[in-house]
Amino acid sequence: MRRSDKEIKDKNCIEWILKNASVCRIAICDNETPYIVPMNFGFEENDLYLHSASEGLKIDMIRKNNRICFEADIETEIVTADNACSWGMKYYSVIGFGKAHFIEDKDKKINALDVIMQKYSNKPNETFEYSKPSLDKTTVIKVEIESLTGKKSGY
Q1: How far is CA 60 from the centre of its chain?
Q2: Which of 36, 47, 66, 95 has its CB 3.0 to 4.6 Å from that of 100, i.e. a possible disulfide?
Q3: What is the CA angle 96-56-109, rounded to 5?
């Protein structure tokens, strides 16, 4: 990282960002064409969980190349100044790399969906009901995180 003074080295802070961010952007690549997608997600231990429709460009690209880069940020705020070149941004952010895998096992799929639902419902440890048709048409992706970098500015 170029600006080591902005680097977040505290693992708890990085996890706090991932647990509080409402959107995770995943970057995937098919041959030489990059593609970035904002997604709802869950984070548990060293894994991200994503859900998706079972068809589409994102799914096709992940099937060809399961390498993923992802980004999440929170508490973003524009910082103004008298001089235009002195404007900036306050933020906490995380960038990570990992490998995506499709979850086929029903119980693991339900667990991953629970992680996502717990995040957005603010009901930790809650379990949820999913109809068989909903489970059948939902693709769940587990991203095994290989590396994480945290960065902050203005805090």
Answers
A1: 19
A2: 66
A3: 60
Tokens found for residue 26: 């995943």
H helix or E strand, kind and range, residue 20: helix 11-20
CB 66 within 8 A of CB 99: yes
DSSP class of 62? H
Distance in angstroms (rounded) separating the CA atoms of residues 82 and 28: 39
Predicted local confidence at residue 1, as pLDDT = 65
Q: How far apart are CA 15 and CA 22, in angstroms?
A: 13
What ranges do the domains of the chain cover?
A: 4-153
The CATH topology of domain 4-153 is Pnp Oxidase; Chain A (2.30.110)
Quick check: 118 and 112 in contact, CB under 8 A?
A: no
Q: How far apart are CA 151 and CA 90, in angstroms?
A: 11
Q: What is the pLDDT of residues 46-73, one digit of tens each?
A: 999 999 999 999 999 999 999 999 999 9
Residues 155 and 152: their CA atoms lie apart, in Å, by: 7
